[in-house]
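Let us practice reading a record.
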Amino acid sequence: MIDQNINNWGRWGKNDQRGMLNLQTPASILRALKLVKKGKTYNLSVRLEAEGPQHPMFHKTWQTTFMTTHADPCGFQVADDVLTMVTHSGTHMDALGHCWTDGQLWNGRSTDNVTSYGIEWAGIENVSEFVTRGVMLDIARYKKVDYLELGEVITTEDMQGCADAQGVEVQPGDVLLLRTGWYTVFNNNYELWKQGEPGPDATCAGWLKEKDVMMLGADNAGVESYKLGGGPYLDARLHLATLRDLGIYLIEHLDLEELAKDEVYEFLFIAAPLRLPKATGSPLTPLAII
């Protein structure tokens, strides 16, 4: 359940639509840039294609290439693409206005701001970019398993214990990424993958607020733990606790395998969403740089 007393409403004024992104400042960016020592980059996105990782309840991404040709075969020829997709396809981030309850969006604004023409409050266009410190907690490695079980809940004790074991400290303004190992299940056991996922739940809201995490991401379809047929999936209590109450952004469908292989737990994190007016989310290509 959600503790209604754990929120950041009014922290940056009643008109704020950026939430925890307010913690990113020129000074914090300069600190994060100092994390780069080797010049090695990790692309944390998955392939954006019809058969790539997409939530099983969403329409699949569809792409076609068409040709526009010149009558003269020696003239200028061109091929182009049409892409049809849910904005929450592949690796993507959720805007703060993505979900709500009790008729209220982030910062207490009315859901009258949500129509079929888009969201007029806390849409993705309010997010410029993320240039900050990133921390990856390899929960699967910490628990000595290839991947966590379907519906398994990652507790605050798990996250803190993993951070301690890795020798990293979660700091204000961090992007926190959780490796559950579930991304590997997509390629090896799709029938299991589409039934749900492991992840944290809303009981970690107080811990996330205490740590002042800016963004939370995971290598699964929805960050939080759920099991289709095993509970009210559309409750999505962690989504409400993070996006609506705390102003913490969510990233879904991450590929953290290379970071895990190299045991990289702290890095410069850079990402920017598409500038889509009034949209509830956007595809994202996150980079980890060490």
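A brief commentary: The chain has a mean pLDDT of 93.
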